[in-house]
Specification:
By secondary structure, the protein is mainly alpha-helical. It is 71% helix and 1% strand. It has a two-stranded antiparallel sheet. It is globular and about 75 Å long.
């Protein structure tokens, strides 16, 4: 490590190192509000062009509030986690473990509250009433999501601060943790090449620069050792900007740099910081579905704590660090529900950045958290970051996610790999962690469990759709019922006994 957990680099250098973390997590964080904006406020087919244009402008404005909210939530959660929680240099961002539950909440709200545009009359009163109902439907779904997040967050905090997760840790050997970490990286394959494919020339260039800067030039020039990701991003965006200015990348091209959002965005957010969509609404079905997402998120964070501390060269996290981390993550998620965003968890891509840059200073991440809060409060900063073209982000993903999977292999190697037992359990957990979610994405995966009660079916779908949860459940079960010595399972090394 160039900088360890407790090191404080010079402040000018810290700002650039922190900015590198912000840019790395930005794509994944913004992806969720960009996905949910059109779902929460869909533009119906067959309406007048003038009305469609008006709804599109409102949808864009609402999505902008979502983006600002998740950036603010990420900053607050990161600051709490790195200062009072596990105190590891982990960036917190929107968790993908909850998406299945959120999709269900939005769909239910749209089916019961959305206006019937075909029945809307031609008078201005009817149209305005339909627009108001359309706006309220999306906001109401976010209120239900907020209520479920807050209740689930309280449960997560109890699990963490009670020390229950630290006790469970004694039953989680490298045979379980290794495959789970592998799945954290491997399960993100859907946002790797598909994102990079937006413009392969730019994405391949960014990937090549990352390898060149971090593995070749870093051995000779210190700036490339410290800022390989940031330099690759800046050069990639600079090339896209030059091609845009010369007309090669026209409007609509994936690598086009669009700065129009900067001109139209507000400098400072007003009164919409707390409860921007209204007060939380608590429904049992939504809470049960979101609790399943929290289970997957806890397991994911547990694995991330191991990856992060190992990458920092500080060994495995202690029971106290794990308990504080899970507990503080719950508090952060409760605050997220109040700030109008989506629930947060630790970000694997930023842990991969630690491995590339060899900078594991928590001070750097704390400054990054402050930058994220600024992004959430000042619209101009968020608009600038949003101008990063999609293929540049895709190139980053392809490099970082593979590194996370490789760290899982290293963790798995702490058990006895000469044991057929360990190889069978680990391999089965990884395969099923990839295959079962694919099954639940199909119509059959949901139809086959339709006979279950609605709440229980939601739990099964939420867990089955999350590779880390599937791998953890299978690995945990098999590793603890199939006999083996603690040395064979790697528990002696893991617990430092």
């Amino acid at each position: 490590m160039i900088y360890g957990l407790d090191d404080r680099p010079p402040f000018p250098r810290v700002v650039f190192l922190a900015l590198q973390h912000v840019l790395t997590m930005f794509g994944s964080t913004v992806a969720v509000p960009l996905l949910f904006g059109p779902l929460l406020w869909p533009i119906p087919d067959g309406i007048a062009p003038e009305l469609a244009q008006r709804l599109a402008a409102m949808q864009l404005s609402n999505t902008g509030v979502l983006i600002s909210s998740v950036m603010l939530c990420s900053g607050v959660a990161t600051l709490l986690q790195s200062t009072l929680g596990c105190r590891l240099p982990i960036i917190q961002g929107v968790s993908f473990s909850f998406l299945a539950a959120f999709f269900g909440i939005v769909a239910a709200q749209q089916s019961t509250s959305a206006p019937d545009w075909a029945a809307v009359g031609s008078t201005s009163v009817d149209v305005e009433a339909a627009i108001a109902a359309w706006q309220t439907t999306g906001a109401s779904a976010m209120c239900v999501i907020a209520g479920a997040i807050i209740v689930g967050a309280l449960v997560e905090s109890v699990i963490g601060f009670s020390g229950l997760m630290g006790v469970v840790r004694r039953y989680l050997s490298p045979v379980v943790v290794g495959p789970v970490i592998m799945l954290i990286g491997l399960a993100l394959y859907q946002v790797g090449a598909p994102t990079a494919a937006a413009s392969w020339p730019i994405s391949i260039l960014v990937m090549a620069m990352i390898f060149l800067f971090s593995q070749v030039l870093s051995k000779h020039i210190r700036i490339f050792q410290l800022f390989p990701m940031l330099l690759a991003i800046l050069i990639g965006v600079g090339i896209c900007g030059l091609m845009t200015a010369t007309g090669v990348y026209a409007v609509g091209h994936p690598a086009h740099v669009d700065l129009s959002a900067i001109k139209g965005s507000a400098w400072v957010r007003g009164t919409d910081v707390f409860f921007p969509w209204g007060m939380p609404v608590f429904t049992s079905a939504a809470i049960v579905a979101v609790l399943a997402g929290y289970l997957a998120s806890i397991i994911e964070s547990f694995g991330d704590y191991h990856v992060c501390k190992n990458m920092a060269g500080a060994g495995d996290p202690t029971e106290a660090e794990i308990s504080r981390g899970i507990g503080m993550e719950g508090i952060a998620c409760a605050i997220t529900g109040m700030l109008g965003g989506f629930s947060s968890t630790s970000y694997s891509e930023n842990i991969g950045l630690i491995g590339l840059t060899k900078v594991a200073s928590r001070y750097v991440v704390q400054v990054g958290a402050c930058l994220l809060i600024l992004l959430g409060m000042f619209g101009k900063f968020g608009a600038c970051a949003a101008a990063i073209p999609k293929p540049v982000v895709g190139g980053l993903y392809c490099v970082l996610f593979g590194l996370i999977a490789a760290v899982g292999v290293r963790q798995f190697a702490k058990c006895n790999l000469a044991s057929d037992r360990n190889l069978l359990i680990g391999g089965f957990a990884v395969f099923m962690g990839l295959s079962v979610p694919f099954y639940f994405q199909s119509a059959a995966g949901k139809t086959d469990i339709a006979w279950l009660p609605t709440g229980l079916a939601g739990i099964v779908i939420a867990i089955g759709s999350t590779g880390m949860a599937v791998g953890a459940c299978i690995g945990l079960l098999l590793d603890n019922i199939i006999p083996a010595s603690r040395q064979e399972r790697g528990l002696e090394e893991t617990l430092g006994e």
